[in-house]
Amino acid sequence: VPAHFVRQRMEAADSVVLFSATLNPTDYYVNLLGLSDATVSMDVPCPFDPAQLAVSIHPVSTRRDDRLTTLDTLVDTMAQQYAQHSGNYLAFFSSFDYLELALACLQQRHPQLPVWVQQRQMNESARHAFLQQFDAQGQGIGFAVLGGVFGEGVDLPGKRLIGAFIATLGLPQFDGLNNAICERMQAMFGRGHDYTYLFPGMQKVVQAAGRVIRTPTDTGAVLLLDERYREHRYRSRLPSWWRIAIV
User: Fold this and answer.
1) Each residue of 98-144: pLDDT tens digit?
2) Is the pTM of this model over 0.90?
3) 30-38 contacts, C-beta under 8 A, 24 or more apart
4) Where are the alpha helices (DSSP H) in 26-168?
């Protein structure tokens, strides 16, 4: 919680404007950054037409205990989308371990499908080479980890990227460290689970999906490959301008 360190700088300023595509929900950022309770927020309408982005939820379990049994369904869904609308896609996974499982399964079941992969260690030239694969005339799927270097700050307009597969909710690991953070968030703000897991996780999902539509003329698809997106607590955290189909 950076509020203790940030608040003094904020209070010393005559005015402060914060802006981002993912400053939602407002109270989460107000509390974490130590902003005044009188902070005013504004939700600017998205400049894109909902018809530009086809968003769909597919009932696949990506829970750790289910992954081996659902891999075939997962990669078949990806391959089917690719067959219907060939082009360049990004596929995001919750970890390198899960990415490598899905990659091996896809290459076994659909060996004709071109793929390129984010490595665990990549220098600047390697990252550049990865992005160069997304040529406007190219076709294939780039495998990446959600929340990594290719999940935000990547601009692939037009036909360089026509879709994204997101095979995770993006929730941080339920481990000792995050459980301790959750307890602290609960004590401070009364919303420990949301502040520790839900909001950060869904923010990464929205950032990754935002790679697809970059200009007023772009069109594309986002496939949310996790059955939990059908639950209101997760779906309500997705952008309001999305028109979501449940398959």
Assistant:
1) 999 999 999 999 999 999 999 999 999 999 999 999 999 989 999 99
2) yes
3) 31/1, 31/3, 31/188, 31/189, 31/195, 32/1, 32/2, 32/3, 32/195, 33/2, 33/3, 33/6, 33/7, 34/2, 34/3, 34/4, 34/6, 34/7, 34/10, 35/7, 35/10, 36/10, 36/11
4) 26-33, 67-84, 96-109, 124-132
